[in-house]
Amino acid sequence: MVRMETIANLAGVSVSTVSNVLNGRSNVGQATRERVLRICEEQGYQLNTPTRKERSSKSNRILFVFQDFDRDFYLKIIHGISDYLTENGYDLVICTNRSSGSFMRSSFAGGAICLDGSMTDEAVLAASTPEFPIVVMDRIIHDDSTNVKSVVVNNYPVMCEMVQALVESGVKKFGFLGGQEFTLDNKERFEGLADTLAKNNLPFDRKYYYHGNYREQSGYQAAKIMALSHDLPEALICANDNMAIGAIKAFEESGIRVPEQIAVTGFDDSETSDMAGLTTVTIPRYESGYLAAKELLEMIHGQADRTPFKLNASVTWRSTTPRDE
Questions:
Q1: Do residues 218 and 250 lie in contact, with contact meaning Cβ atoms separated by under 8 Å?
Q2: 72 exposed, middle or buried (CB, 10 Å; 0-12, 13-18, 19+)?
Q3: Tell me: the pLDDT tens digits for 230-281?
Q4: Residues 54-91: pLDDT tens digits?
Q5: Which of 18, 81, 257, 285 has the CA that lies 20 to 30 A from 150?
């Protein structure tokens, strides 16, 4: 399916300009408008002109956009969103990033909730209008002139708490297995680790910073490389559970015992982490979806401010760390 970004590139304009054209705004020159519409037609881009029935029901339709099906916590978030919307007489439409460009507009829905790391801030801002508010769940956008609000996890303090407890248990040499570096989650989780180590006068050696992409396979590959180097940290702090599970599998295959030779922690508290006995951070995913839907409906009704809403999380200690509660 052709995306809005493709139309923008072909027309030589920004995504926001394409959005303005497709939403019928008057702040685009006639020549540019005609060029964008012509390219849309040539590329088979679906303009999704609403029927009368759709126009009358769109305000009760809410869109949830997410990146992929790989991480099981999406189901908990969707459950929370769905419950709140159902309680308030709204319908939920779910789509992935591949098709979001066709639906992120006021002619289709009354607003959107986005958890899509591949969607740029520019694309979010372009889609947001007074008639189409957006709640984002993976970033904070500092732009008071837009109709965007953030509902995010407060990663920093809970990471500090977990790392401090490990330091007090005797761990001195830490590694970090990060996800995509541009994401807010990854930045805050690493900052929590680094600041807590600095507070305890413990250095963090950048050679123990390993790169992943939040998927299990990337954690597995990073741990295989660690095993081959014969230079392990005492604890590997992973930016999510998927990578931690992959790392544990690789350590086991390499004959490295967890937690006797290396402690491992995750972040998310997925069902898999419970089965694996993984120490992790428990995030109220259902509640985050419920609150995101609540904030969006308040925006639709003109009752919400734009101050980011940060959810607290807690450490769940299990058998992959020397401390076991």
A1: no
A2: middle
A3: 899 999 999 999 999 999 999 999 999 999 999 999 999 988 999 999 999 9
A4: 444 556 899 999 876 556 678 899 999 999 999 899 99
A5: 18
Q: Residue 32 has which token pair?
A: 């540019």
In this structure, which amino acid lies at residue 234?
Answer: E
pLDDT digits (tens, 9 = 90+) for 270-287: 889 999 999 999 999 999
Q: What is the DSSP string of 111-126?
A: EEEEE-TTS-HHHHHH
E strand segments, the chain = 61-66, 91-96, 111-115, 134-136, 148-153, 174-178, 209-211, 235-238, 263-265, 280-282, 309-311, 314-316
Domains and CATH numbers, the chain: 1-47 (1.10.260.40), 52-151+286-311 (3.40.50.2300), 155-283 (3.40.50.2300)
Burial call 154-182: b when 16+ CB within 10 Å, e when fewer: ebbebbbebbebbbeeebebbbbbbbeee
Q: Give the closest residue to 5 by CA, choosing from 97, 95, 69.
A: 97
